[in-house]
């Protein structure tokens, strides 16, 4: 019985393609974080259609903050404060309905 099926490569053989360096981000993380903070500060309602989208955005900016160092952490904390403000406003509005 052959060890490999025809056309199947050896899983442990060195890769033919060299691993490419990841592409640099389209925008610097600090710039993207600052823009998100400005957007949240300028609005009175949640800019996201659902909690799932809000959670995805949260994971994205937390990842950006990890890559941006101390300044990124400060921006992420401010973004979280603004998001909490908007969530609280959304809850108050839902209670009025």
Q: What topology emerges from the helices and strands here?
A:
Elements: H1 29-42, H2 51-96
Helix pairs in contact: 1-2
What low-confidence regions span 5 or more consecutive residues with pLDDT below 50?
none
- Beta-strand content bin: under 5%
The number of distinct helices, counting runs of at least 4 residues, comes to: 2
> What oligomeric state best describes the polypeptide chains here?
single chain
Description:
This protein is an all-alpha fold and 97 residues long. The chain has a domain at 29-41 and 48-96. Helix content is 62%, strand content 0%. The chain has 2 helices and no strands. Helix 1 runs parallel beside helix 2. The protein is elongated. The mean pLDDT is 85.
Give a brief description.
The chain has 97 residues and is mainly α. It contains two helices and no strands.
Features:
elongated, 2 helices, 62% helix, mainly alpha, 97 residues
